[in-house]
Amino acid sequence: MTERDFRPTRRGLMLAAGAITLATALPSVPVWAASPVKMAGIYTVPVEQQWVSRIHQAAEAAKAAGAVEYVFTENVANTDYARVMREYCEQGMQLIVGEIFGAEQEAREVCAEYPNVAFLLGSSFPPDEAANPNLAVFDNFIQDASYLSGIVAGAMTKSGNIGMVGGFPIPEVNRLMNAFMAGVRETRPDAKFQISFIGSWFDPPKAKETAFAMIEAGADLLYAERFGVSDAAKEKGVLAIGNVINTQPDYPETVVVSALWHFEPTLNAALEAINAGSFKAADYGVYSFMKNGGCSLSPLGTFEGKVPADVMAKVAEKEAAIKDGSFTVTIDDNEPKSS
Fold first, then answer.
1. Which residues of the chain have pLDDT under 50?
2. Model pTM score
3. Which CATH number fits domain 143-261+294-324: 3.40.50.2300, 3.90.650.10, 3.30.300.30, 3.90.550.10?
4. Number of other CB atoms surrounding residue 228 within 10 Å
5. In 116, 142, 218, 339, which residue has its Cα 20 to 30 A from 210's Cα atom?
């Protein structure tokens, strides 16, 4: 299977395998005493896309646990986002989850129109308690896991030339790339980086072609922030590092390790607040931190024993320090540059 044909199979896994698999997903979902919260997801991309898939998976897990009644709409254009929000509000939804990076102003206007609805939305901007007391924002602050994946990557590249393909140079992407690069320098201080953004969240062919060009320019390891990159790595026989989800099962000889995002802590915190009647404007980004269970490094799987033991010992040491607070991964939202 490739990232290009990943979509239908992933839909089958998400929507058919459902309750049993997702109910046992980690982190675990609490047992809820309150009535299920009526929840709607609004997504601008397919639910298989890395970032949104984690929100969708957490929602399905909450549904399986009886915490929510969950419906969703995918592939919503930014120009239609506010309309879909209003439709769900009129249907009596209590919680609306999604991402408003391309529709900030319109979305926040809708939040103000429906003060009795709780909104938990991915956003580049902070919460505004005065204007939107019912809007909590979040983002995937998984720089901790990205940093650890970089430590592994630095040990696995032979040339020290690493290609990095991202969607857009926005803070949400930049911070992960910068953390990854910092991790690489822990084990390969002389590493060089080729960095490119494809201007899309879901264009596997373009990401693949961009990755091909980087391989031609000497990269022997790729940071796969977008779907399509691991396809190029597989075809050319180089390695890749995954982002947000674990794609190693589909690329067992290519994807060494992935930085995983777990949306469950974010969603669980919001549901607890709703059930307690205390939901309010807040920044839920902290629930993506490793110390709160919001991110992790995937198992090595097929690369077990192929990554040097001393490197994995360093990863374990850094992970423990991150969790106990003695080490903090820098959050750098500046656009990374090729070097």
1. 1-33
2. 0.85
3. 3.40.50.2300
4. 26
5. 142
Continuous H helices in 92-203: 104-113, 143-156, 171-187
Listing DSSP states for 198-215 in one string gives: -S-SS-HHHHHHHHHHHH
> Of 262, 303, 302, 300, which is closest to residue 284 (Cα–Cα)?
262
Query: To which residue do tokens 């106990």 refer?
Result: 324
What's the order of all strands across the beta sheet hosting 295-297?
A: 192-197, 161-166, 221-224, 239-244, 255-261, 295-297
* Confidence (pLDDT) at 22: 37
- Name the CA radius of gyration of the chain, rounded: 20
Query: What's residue 172's pLDDT?
Result: 86
Per-residue pLDDT at 175: 95
Whole-angstrom CA distances from 229 to 208, 247, 307 are: 5, 11, 21
Distance CA 27, CA 62 (A): 11
Q: Write down the pLDDT at residue 49.
A: 81
Whether 6-139+262-290 shares its CATH topology with 143-261+294-324 is answered yes
- Pairing state between β 255-261 and 295-297: antiparallel
Fold classification of 6-139+262-290 (topology level): Rossmann fold (3.40.50)
Sheet containing 68-73: give its strands across: 68-73, 37-42, 95-99, 118-122, 135-138
Helix axes 229-236, 204-216, angle to 10 degrees: 40
Angle between helices 143-156 and 171-187 (to 10 degrees): 40
Count the neighbouring beta carbons within 10 Å of the beta carbon of residue 109: 15
pLDDT of residue 34: 57
Please report, for residues 149, 244, 256, 327, the alpha-carbon distance to residue 154 in angstroms, rounded to integers and kept in the order given: 9, 19, 12, 20
Q: How many CB atoms lie within 10 A of CB 250?
A: 19
Closest CA to 114 of 154, 82, 145, 66: 82
Spatial separation of the C-alpha atoms in residues 324 and 51, rounded to whole Å:
27
For the chain, the structural domain boundaries read 6-139+262-290, 143-261+294-324
